[in-house]
Amino acid sequence: MEDKEKKGLEGAGLCLPVNRHGNLKSASSDQDFKDVLLQIKSSKTTAVINYGASWCRVCSQILPTFCRLSNNFPKISFIYADIDECPETTQHIRYTPTFQFYRDGERVDEMFGAGEERLHDRTASINQGAGRSQSHRHLAREAFAVFQSSASRPISIEINPIPSQVSQATLLSESCSRQVWRIASETWSQSLSGWPSLTDL
């Protein structure tokens, strides 16, 4: 009788790897899952959500891998949501298992079905990008503020039409120090992915 009352990962009936970092959770109800989604977005968390079901054979096969990944990527939150336990919040899910990947609180990828290598690669991808857009935004805002305060004339930035690169900035200020120029050069030489526009600064 007690086994029937177990939910989430405990209710899967599998011998799963022990999570060592406290970054693996189960959503056992619609309200619980709503709280999880709110937490991911409000705290700009990098996360992987696994939508599965206790009756799904493929879900059971990939679940141990999902739990092992939580130990391999301690900075990422791993959430398991059983579609039968969270029927309202998972009604948009059409396939099990479905994996959704969040970076800095925003959904950036989705994967259907199993595949240990695919799951690992996509998890590694969001792990590499975790916090990058926030870091870029912070650096860009600081550099732009320094330029604005030190420039004797308005700043003109010439942008290369290639979307993944920015050409060397044309700064119309002779008063910018060598240090400021070095920071700006390093900052704008990175990919534009995740960068704010000047109007957002």
Short description:
With 201 residues, the protein is α/β, with parallel strands linked by helices. The protein has 6 helices and 5 strands, in the order αβαβαβββααα. It has a 5-stranded mixed β-sheet, sandwiched between helices.
List the SSEs and their pairings:
Elements: H1 2-5, E1 24-27, H2 30-42, E2 47-52, H3 57-72, E3 77-82, E4 98-103, E5 106-112, H4 116-129, H5 132-150, H6 178-188
Helix pairs in contact: 3-4, 5-6
- Major beta-sheet overview: 5 strands, mixed
Count of DSSP-assigned helices: 6
Please tally the β strands and state the result.
5
Shape type: globular
State which percent range the strand residues make up.
5-15%
Tell me the helix content.
Answer: 25-40%
Let me know the average pLDDT: 75
- Compressed to H and E, one letter per element, the order equals HEHEHEEEHHH
- Unreliable segments of 5+ consecutive residues: 134-140, 150-178, 187-201
Radius of gyration equals 22 Å
By helix and strand content, what is the structural category? alpha/beta
Distance between the termini: 58 Å
Biggest sheet, spatial arrangement of strands: 1-3-2-4-5
